[in-house]
Amino acid sequence: MIGNDPKIFDISMTLENNMACYPKDIPYHWQRQRDMNCDCGSNVSQFESSCHIGTHVDSPLHYYNDSYDVASIPLTHLYGKAYVIDCLGTDAVGREDLAGKVPEGTKRLLLKTDNSKALAKNPRAPFNPSFVYLDATGAEFCREFGIIMVGIDYLSIDQSGLASKPAHHTLLGNDITILEGILLDHVPQGEYFIACGSLKMAQSDGAPARTVLFELEN
Questions:
Q1: Which end of the chain is more exposed for a tag (fewer CB within 10 A), N or C?
Q2: 31-63 as b/e, with b when 16 or more CB fall inside 10 Å?
Q3: Which domain covers residue 181, as residue numbers?
Q4: Full-prediction pTM beyond 0.90?
Q5: What's the CATH number where 188 sits?
């Protein structure tokens, strides 16, 4: 599936102090707990953060108490062929942005929007409530199409401040994994192999995920 020397796209945000986080979430904070320069014998670090920081996955437990955690997300959702679709120039990704443009058989869909351009310019910019999101019609299209993972290039897939959260409910309520906070400005539209290494955290509704795309053989 993957060539002998595949081109690898790292689409993960770097976790660092003072990075943007979703409002009301605990921001990421790293510090050195033990330091070799203080005769401790080794460097040991610690961090505190919301589980929905940077590039991360949402499990159904994020919105449904009786559903499963991130440790139970099927690996078939996180690894396999994925299609990056160019959705630049729209304020919200809807059915009309996807219908007839997503290749048949696509199971993992990554939305490349103007969010990626903004993050590429300033990955540490404060949270922007006007980010591009997936609207209710776009989420319903993904459900009907048989998608098992949807990724977007900002910290949430739903419109900021929208209490009903239609994208989250349509996707997570139908066992569709959500991947948020990916960086796609440097990734052309097309099909790739995605490896989404989310942390295996019991009882957690979300988890950071080191995520990469591999170019496929022609």
A1: C
A2: eeeeeeeeeeeeeeeeeebbbbbbbbbbbbbbe
A3: 8-13+52-215
A4: yes
A5: 3.50.30.50
